[in-house]
Design goal:
The chain has two helices and six strands, in the order ββββββαα. It folds into two domains: 90 residues, MS2 Viral Coat Protein; 33 residues. Strand 1 and strand 2 form a beta hairpin. With 129 residues, the protein is of the alpha+beta class. Helix content is 17%, strand content 50%. A six-stranded antiparallel sheet has the order 1-2-3-4-5-6, with no helix packed on it. The longest helix has 16 residues.
């Protein structure tokens, strides 16, 4: 079993962001990067489960809100104006081995670093042709 600890993730500018453990509820471990205002907390969560067909499933989710101060009736308050979401799911046959699971993760990490197809599709919203 993996211990839930603080994780440091980098943004596009290579700045570090610490995500500290919040809780584990219903098998979902949640970590947050907070500025002290709960509405603007960036979260990352991870869960593992077993499907009804016996497969092993791991899900990683990121939720990154954009917060701006909005003035209503002369009162300024932080408000979420938009949110970016990322859902990554891995499903493995019950007979999969360590190397196969390590390979799929390595392929994903490599794909996310690819600047010819996958990065332009995600960052520039450029459809492949």
């Amino acid at each position: 079993m993996t211990q839930l600890v603080t994780v440091v993730l980098k943004d596009a500018a290579a700045a570090d962001h610490s995500f500290i453990p919040r809780d584990i509820t219903g098998g979902v471990a949640t970590l947050v990067n907070s500025t002290g205002v709960p509405i603007g907390e960036k979260t990352v969560s991870v869960s593992t489960s077993r499907t009804t067909s016996g497969r092993r499933k791991t899900t990683l989710k990121l939720v990154i809100p954009v917060v701006q101060d909005v003035v209503v009736a002369g009162i300024s308050k932080p408000t979420v104006v938009r949110t970016a979401y990322c859902d990554v799911g891995f499903t493995f046959d019950g007979t999969s081995n360590h190397d196969e699971r390590a390979d799929i993760l390595a392929y994903l990490v490599s794909a996310l670093g690819d600047t010819t197809v996958f990065k332009p599709a995600i960052v520039d919203l450029s459809a492949p042709y």
